[in-house]
Amino acid sequence: MTLHAPLIEQTSAFGGNALLLTGPARVGKLELAYAIAAAQNCSGARGMYGEACGNCPSCHAFAAGAHPDLLLVEPRTTTTTGKAARRKLIPVGAILEGRDKAREYETHVFEFLEVRPTFERRVVIVVGAEYLGQEAANALLKLVEEPPHRAMFLFIAEDLKAVLPTIVSRSARLNVAPASDREVARALVQAGLAADEELVAFAAGRAGVLGGAEQVRAALNDARELDEALQTGLLTTLEHAEALEKRWDAAWHPEALRWVWRTRLPHQRARADTALDALQTALEAYASPSLSFQVFALRLREAFGEG
Ligand SMILES: [Zn+2]
Q1: In the chain, where does DSSP find H-type helix?
Q2: Ligand 1 mean position, distance from CA 78 (Å)
Q3: 62 C-alpha to center of ligand 1: Å?
Q4: Do 87 and 116 meet the contact criterion of CB atoms below 8 Å apart?
Q5: How many angstroms is it from 38 CA to the middle of ligand 1?
Q6: How far is the CA of 60 from the centre of ligand 1 (A)?
Q7: Is 210 within 8 Å of 244 (Cβ atoms)?
Q8: Which residue from 39, 52, 118, 245 has the least number of CB within 10 angstroms?
Q9: For residues 30 and 210, what is the distance between their CA atoms, to the nearest angstrom?
Q10: Please, which residues bridge with residue 86 across strands?
Q11: 66 Cα to the center of ligand 1, angstroms
């Protein structure tokens, strides 16, 4: 989707080494980061905003998901003892091979940047810059200030205040704002998808929803079916809970359920949200999924006052 194509124009003239893309969840920051990386490496005829051509060797490598000059760094969820205290972190082991004791990262930033670019410019995308640990950030600073072979850093964060000041001060900031409903509808049509009203409203301007349009639609249907089942018998409710367990997509189902509940009374919604939080916590703690979904369905029936 090219919802944020006009922002690419701002970055094509950008001579610095580091950009910090901020904006709400699923607004399309990662898609934009990929588009910037593609534009920086494209050797073909550009689009009106300087977008990558889509046809040159570099663009083909991007489309195949195997671009030699792109490195994506993501946080890992660390589990300390027991169920509690699971937290996300980008450890120093992501940056320096020698410090990756647990061998969690296949490619490390420092070693990645020692190699010359195959095309124009090596690009490191750091997803969740707010999860950069102090040690990892320190290891990055020199690379960000004087990147080997003109490499570029794209830091992505939802919460600017949570990003270490050393990173913020060395990056030019680009705010990625939600698009209008009309732009979302147009992008859906351009992608050959139906621009139904519910999907556009659910997207609320977030390009990230468009990329998963089919999954979002499926999740909305499941959520609605469960909601309807709650108003019938207990057995039907439990059957739907079982079906939901099999189809559960942690990326979209929670938000789809909340969307379906949005017209409920506030106290009902609050109780349903609590039940959903409990389900997600149970699933993260690897509790028995089938039991967790049954409990969830029963708590929903209570929340909405039927049964
Ligand atoms: Zn190209």
Answers
A1: 5-12, 29-41, 57-63, 109-114, 134-145, 165-168, 181-190, 197-203, 207-211, 213-230, 234-247, 253-260, 266-284, 289-303
A2: 38
A3: 9
A4: no
A5: 7
A6: 8
A7: no
A8: 118
A9: 13
A10: 79
A11: 14
Q: How far is the CA of 104 from the centre of ligand 1 (A)?
A: 32
Neighbours of 123 (CB within 10 A): 22
Residue 262 Cα to ligand 1 middle (Å): 43
CA of 53 to the centre of ligand 1 (A): 4
Please give the Cα distance from 180 to 201 (Å, whole number): 10
Ligand 1 centroid from CA 209, angstroms: 25
Six-digit token string for 157: 């964060």
CA 263 centroid distance within chain: 27
Residue 57 C-alpha to ligand 1 middle, in angstroms?
Answer: 7
pLDDT, one tens digit for every residue, the chain (307 residues): 468 888 998 887 788 899 999 999 999 999 999 999 999 999 999 999 999 999 999 999 999 999 999 999 999 876 555 544 567 899 999 999 999 998 999 999 999 999 999 999 999 999 999 999 999 999 999 999 999 999 999 999 999 999 999 999 999 999 999 999 999 999 889 888 888 899 999 999 998 888 889 999 999 999 999 999 998 889 999 999 999 999 999 999 999 999 999 999 999 999 999 999 999 999 988 889 999 999 999 999 999 984 4
CB distance 56 to 64 below 8 Å: no
Distances (CA, A) of 59 to 40, 43, 54, 68, 182: 10, 9, 5, 11, 29
**Residue 100 and residue 197: Cα distance in Å, rounded?**
47
Q: How far is the CA of 291 from the centre of ligand 1 (A)?
A: 50
Rounded Cα distance, 266 and 299, in Å:
16
Q: Where are the domains of the chain?
A: 5-177, 212-303
* Fold observed for domain 5-177: Rossmann fold (3.40.50)
